[in-house]
Amino acid sequence: MADVDVDVIVIGSGIAGLAAAHSAWEAGLKRVLVAESEGVVGGSSRLSGGIVMGAPTRYQKAAGIDDSADMLFHDYMSLNQWMVEAGVIRRYCDEAGPAVDWLGDLGVQFHEDLIYGGGEIVPRCHCAVNGGQGIIDSLHAKAREREIDIALGQRIDRLIVEGGRVVGVAVGDDEIRAHAVIVASGGFAKNMALMEEFFPGAYGTGDWMWYIGADGSRGDAIEFTKSVNAQLTGHGRGLRLLHPNFVTTLEAFVPGWMVLVNRDGRRFGAENAPYGLMDGFMTAQGNVAFAIFDDVVLNPEKGPQVETYKQTIPGREGRGSPNWNPIMVEEQVGRGRIKRSETLEGLARELGLPVERFVATIKRYNAGCAAGVDDYDKDKKFLRPISHPPYYGAEVRPATVCFTQTGLRIDRDGRVLNDFSEPIPGLFAAGEVTGGIIGDRYVGSGNSLSNGATFGRIAGRTVANNLQ
Ligand SMILES: Cc1cc2nc3c(=O)[nH]c(=O)nc-3n(C[C@H](O)[C@H](O)[C@H](O)COP(=O)(O)OP(=O)(O)OC[C@H]3O[C@@H](n4cnc5c(N)ncnc54)[C@H](O)[C@@H]3O)c2cc1C
Q: Is 186 in the pocket of ligand 1 (CB under 6 A)?
């Protein structure tokens, strides 16, 4: 076997990188090096909400939830209309549940209550205690215990390739050699040129676009894997959330009591839809909508109180809407960002919407509220008529970027494929740096951390098994 400095090099210390490192270590490789470009461990994973999807898990079992990898696969493929690579998704679904349990074995703590992420039949989204930071802290602590090296401030800029095989990485003139390299360097939302090329749906929201993830998401791997002709897949994919552009505060869901209309003054979906679906709704509306509400939001005594969000996320109880609360609304009316009018006709004119159609839309919505039914099957617990003037409205766009999903194409074992769909010897990948796992529809909540943990674990195992 060739002379090496370490057994395996992992690029990136987010959930995918740390999962790969632990998995390789557990499978027998004791010289594992994680190279991290930033001065802190964890990437976007650290900043995340810490929701991880998987089925079946011991946490589901303890909560009396009957679920299976087959049900997850069915939901995943149906939601994505089979426009993802079924073999790779099959592997993902088979291993996502065990990966959640394994995170638990590595010290990650999950709340007992699971949540629904999207439209799944049973809850399969696991909420980590202390969110993404809790996950990273546990994996980091375990890495120290196992003497897995994490080198900070090492921004890999080149792969070392000999005879078509990846045998190491370099930072400038410093080279380090290994039996294999696992790329887990995250997405590219910090790189505007790559956003324009690979995620035009987000780039097109213009100066509203706001990325909530880590600084290291510069897409370096897209550049440094060109030398081995790595194949990219998943063009145009990623996750965007609706955003009013008042301030840069993350709000994953629009309050359910709101009404959304498009430029034609028509509704187009249930306002409380999961974010994976809302992203698609917004693409179909040309990425612009208008959020409509009435004075009950500012003066609750004027009308009935209904729910704001579908569910409470364990560990985040009691949080209200950061964008759509009385203080923010008054402030944004003052700035002219929210329009206010005593009549629906006046509001339509302020927003530049077709007046008669908009008024008809609201009348129909209000009639539905009175009857307890909704054209888009919005849950009754959100239904409240827009009937207490003054009325309010603001433009919203799917401009909050959570992550990107154009990336390296991998096979079901985490091997990176070249342009001819052949595995590139010595090169593996996992997490947000890969493409093709997350489809046009983000499944549930926790699809991305789960992708990272699952394929990180698979890649680490594949590397170790191939060396024995
Ligand atoms: C605020 C927020 C909330 C989210 N909530 C959730 C959630 O609850 N559930 C969910 O599933 N998803 C969530 N996501 C998405 C999810 O967190 C990410 O998609 C996921 O963490 C990506 O994991 P990763 O390991 O692939 O990449 P990252 O965690 O981003 O790690 C990649 C690492 O590689 C490093 N790196 C980059 N380039 C180089 C280089 N050249 N050399 C060395 N190192 C490099 C980066 O600095 C970074 O540390 C959220 C995202 C954000 C931003």
A: yes
Where in the chain do CATH 3.90.700.10 domains reside?
A: 240-309+324-400
1 pLDDT band, cuts 50/70/90, is low
**CATH class for the domain made up of 240-309+324-400:** alpha beta
- Centre of ligand 1 from the C-alpha of residue 324, in Å: 28
Type and span of the H or E element at 182: strand 174-183
Bridge-partner residues for 159, per DSSP? 169
Q: Which residue has a Cα nearest atom 13 of ligand 1?
A: 48
CA distance 264 to 333: 23
pLDDT tens readout for residues 83-108: 999 999 999 999 999 999 999 999 99
Mean pLDDT, residues 390-399:
97
In angstroms, the Cα distances linking 268 to 60, 208, 311, 362, 439 are: 34, 22, 22, 13, 22
Q: Whose CA is nearest to atom 52 of ligand 1?
A: 48
Calpha distance 278→274 (Å, rounded): 6
CATH 3.50.50.60 residue ranges for the chain = 6-237+405-467
* Domain spanning 6-237+405-467: CATH 3.50.50.60: yes
68, 182 Cβ separation under 8 angstroms? no
- Give residue 186 CA to ligand 1 midpoint distance, Å: 5
Rounded Cα gap, residues 75 and 96, in angstroms: 14
Reply yes or no on whether the pLDDT at 318 is more than 80.
no
pLDDT score at 79: 94
Residue to probe by mutation, ligand 1, list 47, 48, 156, most atoms within 8 Å of CB: 48
**Residue 341 in tokens:** 């009018």
Answer whether residue 184 shows pLDDT above 60: yes
The response to whether residue 437 sits with its C-beta less than 6 Å from ligand 1 reads no
